[in-house]
Amino acid sequence: MKTIKPAILGTLMVPAFMFAAGSVNAEESTTTMEATYLTETPENTFHADALTGNQVKSSVEDDEDIGTITDLVIGEDGQINAVVVGVGGFLGMGEKNVAIEWDSLELTKNEDGDDYVITVNASEDALEAAEEYNRNEDKDK
């Protein structure tokens, strides 16, 4: 009988511990954080539209325009992973998208300090030869 008692006691204790652990987790997950708000653009930040629509210049081709930023790839942590650049084509026709990793770009301010100048260490031919970037939802179509 002595061996049955610890087994029964153990069986009864497991649900009790599971209930207690579940209660703690339930309390932690219901805590909400109140929203905070901005009234001005923080220093050393910029808006997405400061990049989208801008030309990307080649640092190996005398700062020639080699494409236009059409989109940003942003991680769940809020960090920009890459910019999507439309290259090739004429007046938007025949253009393909190439994703360039964020760390491959150099952002500087123009002479007026108003806009960003975006350069990459690649030629237009290199971007046109690069593999096309496809958004995940485009793969399902």
Name the features:
six-stranded mixed β-sheet, 3 helices, PRC-barrel domain-containing protein, disordered N terminus, signal, 141 residues, alpha+beta, 26% helix, PRC-brl_dom, PRC_barrel-like_sf, SH3 type barrels
Q: How are the secondary structure elements laid out?
A:
Blueprint: H1 4-30, E1 55-58, E2 64-74, E3 80-87, E4 96-101, E5 105-109, E6 116-120, H2 124-129, H3 136-139
Parallel strand pairs: 1-6
Antiparallel strand pairs: 1-2, 2-3, 3-4, 5-6
CATH architecture of the domain at 48-119: Roll
Largest sheet report:
6 strands, mixed
Order of helices and strands: HEEEEEEHH
Report low-confidence residues grouped into runs of 5 or more: 1-18
CATH topology descriptor of the domain at 48-119: SH3 type barrels
The rounded Rg comes to: 27 Å
- What is the helix content? 25-40%
Helical stretch tally: 3
Per CATH, the superfamily of the domain at 48-119 is PRC-barrel domain
The number of strands is 6
In terms of structural class, how would the helical and strand content be classed?
alpha+beta
Mass-distribution shape: globular
CATH class of the domain at 48-119: Mainly Beta
Strand content: 25-35%
What's the N-to-C terminus distance?
Answer: 66 Å
How do the strands of the widest beta sheet line up side by side? 4-3-2-1-6-5
Q: Averaged pLDDT, please?
A: 80
